Amino acid sequence: MTTALITGSTAGIGAAFGRRLAADGHNLVLVARDVDRLREQATELHDRHGIEAEVLAADLATEEGISAVEARLADRKHPVDLLVNNAGFGNKGRYLDVPMADELRMLKVHCEAVLRLTSAAADAMRERGRGGVVNVASTAAFVPRGTYGASKAWVVQFTQGAANDLAGAGVRLMALCPGFVRTEFHERAGMGTDNIPKWMWLDADKLVSAALADLERGKSLSIPDPRYKAMMGAVKFVPRGLLGGVTSRTGRKYGPQ
Ligand SMILES: NC(=O)c1ccc[n+]([C@@H]2O[C@H](COP(=O)([O-])OP(=O)(O)OC[C@H]3O[C@@H](n4cnc5c(N)ncnc54)[C@H](OP(=O)(O)O)[C@@H]3O)[C@@H](O)[C@H]2O)c1
């Protein structure tokens, strides 16, 4: 039996990874901050699929939280075969409206935690000559979309670079770039979503199936939906200024601060 560690496992895309990997018979290490929700998820997945689900409560915006998950990934006696770096969030507001402490918290979770957890996992995986890492970025990585998009662009560049460096070592690294997915993300960030057309919404379970198929194929970048693939292809030919105007009108409606 193999083991997968999922950060941000209790909601949205992370929970969809949990359901799918448990159904496929993987043991799980579930990481998020809310320990009650983690325990409930672990019990449900164990009861439904007969897998072992470990709970690791950690805040990845803190040194203590990142270190605890690093230590679990580095544990050679209980190897992790697949790491899904999925925990993430959006800040409420545009550039300069968001307190600097919140911007730095986002970089800690989206970039520092992803760098350190990927490295802890990949180091152990390289020794064993096998393993996989999925780093959840976003299609926002490809458009001028504030500090959120910038942090996700870092995830894409880092992951593809690391995948190149580890080519031939048996370790697969893939950046996953979803478009809009119905999860708790937008509500948590206080974002209105009425201006996002229905056709742009993706289903988390389908997204995860397509992502795992892409990982199996050895892709280092996954845009797991034909509509978004076409859009991201077209984006390369649109002037950045025009693109910035369009993206700032789509999907970033903030309520009262
Ligand atoms: N939804 C979208 O449209 C969309 C699109 C593209 C990319 N993404 C990316 O997909 C990933 C998952 O987002 P989602 O939409 O599934 O969000 P979500 O439904 O809000 O779930 C976020 C998960 O991350 C955990 N989390 C948040 N902050 C954390 C922290 N500091 N430390 C540890 N865990 C933390 C949350 O649990 P706790 O609160 O208990 O910690 C929860 O399990 C994110 O990286 C996001 O940027 C989302």
Report on this model:
- With 257 residues, the chain is an alpha/beta fold.
- The protein has a single domain, classed as NAD(P)-binding Rossmann-like Domain (Rossmann fold), CATH 3.40.50.
- 49% of the residues lie in helices and 16% in strands.
- The strands form three sheets. A seven-stranded parallel sheet has the order 3-2-1-4-5-6-10, sandwiched between helices. A two-stranded parallel sheet has the order 7-9. A two-stranded antiparallel ribbon has the order 8-11.
- Helix 1 (12-23) runs parallel beside helix 2 (35-49) and helix 4 (100-128) packs parallel to helix 5.
- The termini are far apart.
- 40% of the residues are buried.
- The structure holds NADP nicotinamide-adenine-dinucleotide phosphate.
- It comes from Streptomyces triticagri.
- Keywords: Oxidoreductase.
List the helices and strands and how they pair.
Blueprint: E1 3-7, H1 12-23, E2 27-32, H2 35-49, E3 53-57, H3 63-74, E4 82-85, H4 100-128, E5 131-136, H5 146-165, E6 171-176, E7 180-181, H6 185-188, E8 191-192, E9 201-202, H7 204-216, E10 221-222, H8 226-235, H9 240-249, E11 253-254
Parallel strand pairs: 1-2, 1-4, 2-3, 4-5, 5-6, 6-10, 7-9
Antiparallel strand pairs: 8-11
GO cellular component, one term: membrane
GO molecular function: oxidoreductase activity
Keywords: Oxidoreductase
Can you give keywords for this protein?
single chain; 257 residues; alpha/beta; Rossmann fold; seven-stranded parallel β-sheet; 9 helices; 11 strands; 49% helix; 16% strand; globular; binds NADP nicotinamide-adenine-dinucleotide phosphate; oxidoreductase; SDR family NAD(P)-dependent oxidoreductase
